[in-house]
Amino acid sequence: MVLRILSIRFPSFHTALAVGVALSLSVGRSFAQTPVINTNPPALPPTDTLKLTINQADEQFKAHNLTVLATQLGISENKAYEIQSQLRVNPAVYVETMPYNQQTRELLPFKQTNAQQVVQVQQLIRLAGKRNKQLAIARTNTELAADRFYDLLRTLTYQLHTTFYDLFYARQTLNVYNQEIATLQQTVSLYQQQFDKGNVPLKDLTRLKAYLFSLTTERQQLLRRLIDDQADLVVLLNTSPTAAIQPVVAPEALDRFTINSLNVSTLVQLAEQNRFDLKGYRDLAKQEQQNLTLQRAMAVPDLTLQGTYDRNGSYIPNYFGVGVGISLPVLNKNQGNIQAAKVRIQSSQQLMSAYVLQVDSDVEKAFTKAVQTEQLYRTFDQRFNDDFGRLIDGVTTNYKKQNIDVVEFLDFFDSYKSSQIQFAQLQNDRMQSMEEVNFAVGTNPFQK
């Protein structure tokens, strides 16, 4: 359908007005040809528009997101703690001398015959493999840091993808509003001119203005949603706040998402293998078991080796001696810490089992929602919008012939808008449900 502007003398004003309104209200494929009044906010300069596919957004996110980069440093921090846990205890040196010899009245005497000096060297020897057990705990801490990092990556990637698709389909919806508002503004302007001349009733002009106001209000709410999505993507991608992010989605990129080839049992197995938050609970349970082993080792006292040199303080002038020291595990056998470690093992095991159920439930819920959304999407007739466009053409023709009034025409006009917006929302819901499956599983099960 193509908009045609004709310069014809009509026998009556009402016939001319009907044709003018019908032409200005033509929708569907004629929107691209209709002169549009620019009611949008000022567009950003071309250099401020950042066009991104979903893969490009992922690369930008992983390379520049500050939260991801900061959390990744936690892995390096814990690796440094591993190095620290491998170090042995430093030796201790003790030196003693006389500050003043009362017999010779010498200050700080160091002569062989008139002073005493004592030098002791001590070295702590940790027994029962404490150092290796502490190293094992430190390595598990590094694994926990990695679990937190990859789980954060999963969470933020989910937020990135859902916001990306929401912004993409919101922009499509905004185009529908812009087209309808621009067309309706032309109609209201024409009706206002004829109302001022007394040729049309006030009730018809009021209905048109009310509907135009309703469209403008709905578009304003949509713009607020666009602003929120835009701000979220700016933070996630760590890009300039002045850059207008424009998602680019190719139709073939959406076809690879199909839930029909998947089943919930396979997805549950994938989730239990790939969910790093679940792995974190498992590593925590493992660390509690390692802590019990360490606490039992702590009940074994450490050994202290000592070497002593004493000049002029013993029965011989230069005394050399060696000694061994160890505490007696009679009163303190680390019983409390061992008991606490056993309780923490039980607690961690229960938390892990509970979280396994939570993960399985998340997968089941996401899969069910995705199946329902996919079924609705597949049953939608893709030709519906084209058929509706042809129906609008027929309505326009009938309105031109004055077979329907302005109220009926606006009803079809609103139905066309609703169908376009609902279809965009259905597509958005489908992609949101697919991303929820990815999030619940912890990996992309749609990859071929």
TrEMBL record:
<keyword id="KW-0732">Signal</keyword>
<dbReference type="GO" id="GO:0015562">
    <property type="term" value="F:efflux transmembrane transporter activity"/>
</dbReference>
<dbReference type="InterPro" id="IPR003423">
    <property type="entry name" value="OMP_efflux"/>
</dbReference>
<feature type="signal peptide">
    <location>
        <begin position="1"/>
        <end position="32"/>
    </location>
</feature>
<comment type="similarity">
    <text>Belongs to the outer membrane factor (OMF) (TC 1.B.17) family.</text>
</comment>
<protein>
    <submittedName>
        <fullName>TolC family protein</fullName>
    </submittedName>
</protein>
<dbReference type="InterPro" id="IPR010131">
    <property type="entry name" value="MdtP/NodT-like"/>
</dbReference>
<dbReference type="Pfam" id="PF02321">
    <property type="entry name" value="OEP"/>
</dbReference>
